[in-house]
Amino acid sequence: MAYSDKVLDHYNTPRNVGSLDRNSSSVGTGMVGAPECGDVMKLQIQVNDATGIIEDAKFKTFGCGSAIASSSLATEWLKGKSVDEALQIKNTDIVNELSLPPVKIHCSVLAEDAIKAAISDYRKKQGSEVAAPVAQTVA
Amino acid sequence: MTCWNCGADRPARFCDACKALQPPVREYFAFFELEPKLVLDDKDLQTRFYALSRKLHPDLFSRKSPTENEYALEASSVLNDAYRTLRDPIARQLYVLKLEGFDIGEQSTKDVPPELLEEVFELNMALEEARMGDADALAQLPGFRARFEAMRAETDLAIAAVSAAWDATHEKQHLNDLRGHLNRRKYITNLIDKTNVPDRV
Amino acid sequence: MFQIEFDNQPDLVVGIDLGTTNSLVAWMNLTKPEVIQGEDGDKLVPSIVSLTEAGELIVGNAARQELIDHPERSIYSVKRLMGRGVEDVREELKLFPFRIAEGSESVIRVALGDNTFTPPEISSFILRQLKKNAEAALNAQVTKAVITVPAYFNDAQRQATRDAGRLAGLEVLRLVNEPTAAALAYGLDKRKEGIVAVYDLGGGTFDISILKLQDGIFEVLATNGDTHLGGDDIDNRLMHIALEDIQSEWGESIAHSGEAIQTLRQDVIRAKEALSFAPVVNLDFAWNGKTYQRTITRELFDSLIQDIVDRTLGPCRDCMKDAGVTPEQIDEVVLVGGSTRIPLVRSAVEVLFRARPHTELNPDEVVALGAAVQAGILAGTVENQLLLDVTPLSLGIEMYGGVVSKIIHRNSTIPASASETFTTGVDRQTNVLIHVVQGERELAKDNRSLARFDLKGIDPMPAGFARIEVRFLIDANGILSVTARDARTGKEQTVEVKPSYGLTDEQVEAMIEASIDNAEADYQAAQLSGIRIEADGIMAATEKAMRHPAWLTLTDEERAHVTAAMNRLKLVYCVNDHHAIHAQVDTLNQATHKLAENMMNTAVLGALKGTSVDN
Prior knowledge:
The complex is a heterotrimer of chains A (139), B (201) and C (615). By secondary structure, chain A is of the alpha+beta class. Chain A contains five helices and three strands. Chain A has a three-stranded antiparallel beta sheet. In chain A, strand 2 and strand 3 (54-62) form a beta hairpin.
């Protein structure tokens, strides 16, 4: 079985591990979990209120390697994107980029959920309540 | 359904007419001739397991036809898998959930109360700090463990209560509650597993 | 008659202990298992194979001397190589004089003189010898067997053992774990209920199994072990000391001489064995006119092997943990394997399990006896006993990042099965490769690679749409099989298996074909055995008839004719030529024709007279 180097890279040296100030009005926090695995993932974004661009993203995941790799990749992608662009990130993009095997697809779903939850939290703080769409699970 | 060997109608585990072993039923409770229940009598289950083993083990079919041999192998593997699942309370509960149409393995964040996630995250952070820390920090691990084990015992009591309730009424709400408790239990178990003092890396 | 009953009894199944150091064959003699001795009167057949200069294969005690005289044409402890790759055995090669042939890749080939053989082939030579011994002793053809394997043997090692059986012309009805077999041997007329620990320290492997006995069911709760720990390691400790001594005393090393090493090894083994009964022994070694002697006390010996004994204790503790029992709950401990005669081993076991070990049965024979019991269970002659064994190692599939996802956990009762659904990763993909491993480690590369299964012929469709349900089944022998079907169409899927180590079915078939000489020899043996049974029958009948009143109704000439035919048959009886025996059987048949007729007539006359002429 061949695994993409990207997977192993994110798995071995995850990027953007850490946390941002949860109380800041420009920080959105998403806390998600996969109960069957006992995984829990926190993903945070820092948004430039003027431009709407995500300037920083951090995560902390307690779970398996693919959950860590998925959230690591997600934070990489988030930086520099607008909030609206960030909402376009789909779990399938993560699956394709990391070549996740079928049994680990739920890890990419978790990462997509985390992005949506963080954006939703940010918007709530900004006063613009826009319901985040529920993530679609790939078959 | 007819007997593969003699064509008799609706054969049991063994055909009444020709005594040939039939392909096994795959549902675990039905295999043991039990009603689906969350609480089972261990002793009774073991008695049934031994009795069925004495009828179905491949050793007893080595002089029978290849077809019966194959069914014996299949039936014994179902028997052993069923016994392994039903005698373990957690595996049994997950099995009942699956049997009742719950999507095991397909749950997401919306199935977990946010407070639980926050709590588990904080506990994980504290635990990680202790594990990465010096001897003093490591000394806290047994304390964490005791605390988590108390939490699990509490959850187990709740599981026992909803299990008895479902067995009595078969109301779906009890299974929803059961799933919630099982999710919590899984998180706590993961935490307990991380409280071993790291000795070898 | 005895032989004829067996002819009508199709289920003569023997039990074989195919050991690292010694092998044995046993059978169920009516109600109790019995080890069968070879022509040399020895029950133990040393697991040594030699190829003589004349190209003849010799096995057992006969090969012992060859091993000393021509170590390059001999091999022992081949069990250590079964089902393993060249990489696995590098360490062994430092200690064992195996000559691995060039070009050994997935399957090792060992050189014996100018020929090379795979480990299953060499094992099959030992099995052939045991088969022959059993056939000679039981006077019947033996084609079915139960063979024992270390409980901790993995799938590849089990497959290799089964292949060896097939190559020896044996249908292997069951592979039984050695400690479990021992429990069967002990359990026959023992207590009905309780927890039993079986501690098996053999020549090359260590196994520990914990069983629950209840109403004739032997349920294995857990098993553990080390396939690289045994009496050979103890021998090597003593060898090491002796070799160093010799080098310093004689000013030269003997390590380069295979002959010297083998002689020393046998002296060392003798000393080791004596130390189990005496507090002090002398190790004597003579070579090329030089002598070496040293005294070995049991204290020294104990200190030399302490760590080897200690290495068995970890698996014992893990096994108790997996079985969910404490030492206090263990009712009995059974010792198996020659190395358990060592007092230090016995005391360590006694301390660990807090129970005095059972030693009533000969630890060298108990496994073979248990194999015979299992053979009886399969043949239907032993009832109410049933063995429920477990798989010693977890079965897993390699996943993302080389991580293993376990699908059947260790200590699961076998037969056991598990199903997994696989899909494709890219559009129009038509095959999926599954890498199956065995072991407890997290990463696939740290486990034992069993095989790569290629699921082929998947209908081309977008990635992630295919649903291939794969069923993994471990049978009662502990051997894996894999079947796959398309969950959407229900169509059976082709599974192509590439075993990581070991022979493919085709290779085994080819070897059986190639050993046509052996097949011929087998055929000859079967013919011989058959005609001897017939000869036994007619000779017994003739002897009885000679005491019958009808004997006196023959003329002197007729009587002389019968006696002569009888003597000629006795003469050719032991010749290995079934045609010759057949001819004499026919002659005797003809010569006794009138006698038989007269016997009938006198019987009729007697009946008419109302008196019996029967004596």
